[in-house]
Amino acid sequence: MKVLIVGGGGREHAIAWSVSQSPKVDKIYCAPGNAGIETLAECVPISAMELETLADFAEEKQIDLTIVGMDDPLVAGIVDVFEQRGLRIFGPRKNAAILEGSKAFSKDLMKKYKIPTAAYETFDSPKEAIEYLETSKYPIVLKADGLALGKGVLICKTKEEAMDGVKTLMLDKQFGTAGDRIVIEEFLEGREVSVLCFCDGTHILPMTSAQDHKRAKDGDKGLNTGGMGTFSPSPFYTEEVKSFCEKYVYQPSMDAMKAEGRDFVGIMFLGLILTKNGPKVLEYNARFGDPEAQVVLPRMKNDIIDVVNACIAGKLEEIQLEFEENAAVCVILASDGYPERYEKGKVIHGLEQFDEKESYYVFHAGTKKTQEGIVTNGGRVLGITAKGKNLHEARNNAYEAVNWVKFENKYCRSDIGKSIDEV
C-alpha cells in the first residue's frame, strides 16, 4: 500500500511510525511533514489546508489510503473533497468534524442526548457574556467556539479575570474568528483523562487511556499550550470509570451523531474529567490527540492499517484492540518562551542516541532540516517518549532520554506524570 499522512507535527510523526510498522505498507508520504518524519516517509511541500492540491497528489501517486492528523483540514472538509474523487481517506466528514469545530455544537449535542457534561451558556455578544458573568459562580471556564490550536480555553478564578477573558476572546480576537462565539461553563474539579476511540459510523472502540498536561509550567501553572507531556495508561481511569463511560458516554456520543445525520468515521477523542459526581465530558476532538498519540500508539499491538480499514468499511466490530501490559510517558521539549514568543533555528544535538534504543522514541514536532543539521522550527520541538514496565519506570526513562537531547533555549516541564505518585 501507499499511504499519505496529512500534517507535520509530533502526532503525525507518531502516526507515521505506527503506519511504518505495518507489513501492508511499502511507501509513506507526508504533507508537509518535518525533519523526523523524513526518516520514515517522503515529505511533500503541500500545506495541510491545500485540500484540492492534496487530492491531486493522492490521485497522481495512486495513494491507497490517506490519514488526516490535523483538525483544521478535517473541519474544512478534506474528507468530502477526497471522497468526491473516489479516494480512500480516514477521518470524519465536514458535517461530523463539527464535533470539534464548534464547542457550542458539541455542548448542545451533549445536552440534547443527555451525555454528562458541565452546565453552560453560549454567547455571540460580548455585552451579554459580561452581563452573565456579573452573577456567575467562580471559578468559571471560557471557551472559544472554534479551533484555537488547543489554547482557546480560559479558566478564570475571579470575575475580573473572566471579564478580561471575554475581551481577549471576543474583542481582541486573540484566536481570530474562533472567538466570535464563546461558551461559558461551570468549572468542574477532578482529574482529567483522555480517551481516543476508533469509530466506523456505528461502532466505537476506545483505546487505552492517557493524561495530558496542558499548562506551560510545572504544577499546572502558566498558559494553556498544545500539550507539554502525557502518560498512559491513567491509573485514575478505573474499570468502574471505563464501564460508566462505555454505557453513558462513548456509544451515546456515536448514536447522537448518527441520529443527527452526521455519521462519525475516524478518531473521536474524548477529554474527560472525573468529578465527585462521576465522569463528565470536557470536550470532543475529531482526530488523534497530540501528544496523546505519542504514548498510545507505541503501546498498541494491532496493525493500525487493519483498524483503519475496518473503520472505513464499517466493520469495526470485527477488531479487538490490544495494548501492551506496560506504560509510556512523553515529555515535550519546547523552545523557551512557548506558547508566546520564542526563537527558532537552534541546532539540535543528541538525536542519534535514539537510533539503537528499543522502547525510547523521539517524535519531531517543530523541526527543520538545514545545512547545519536539524534545527528547532516551532514552539513544541520534540516529544521524548519512553516505555517502562510501569508508569514510574517509564517516567524515569523518559526524563533520562530528555537529557540526551541538547539545543539552545530547550525547555520542558519537570513534573510530567508526577500525579502518579499519589496512587
- What helical percentage do the residues reach? 25-40%
Total of DSSP H or I helical runs spanning 4+ residues: 12
Q: How far apart are the termini?
A: 44 Å
CATH superfamily (homologous) name of the largest domain: ATP-grasp fold, B domain
Q: Give the number of domains.
A: 4
Shape: globular
The CATH topology of the largest domain comes to D-amino Acid Aminotransferase, Chain A, domain 1
The CATH architecture of the largest domain: 2-Layer Sandwich
What ranges have pLDDT less than 50 throughout 5 or more consecutive residues?
Answer: none
Number of E strands: 22
Instruction: Calculate the mean pLDDT score and round it.
Output: 96
Kindly provide the name of the CATH class of the largest domain.
Alpha Beta
- In percent terms, what proportion of residues is strand? 25-35%
What structural class results from the helix and strand content? alpha+beta
Largest sheet: 9 strands, antiparallel
Radius of gyration equals 21 Å
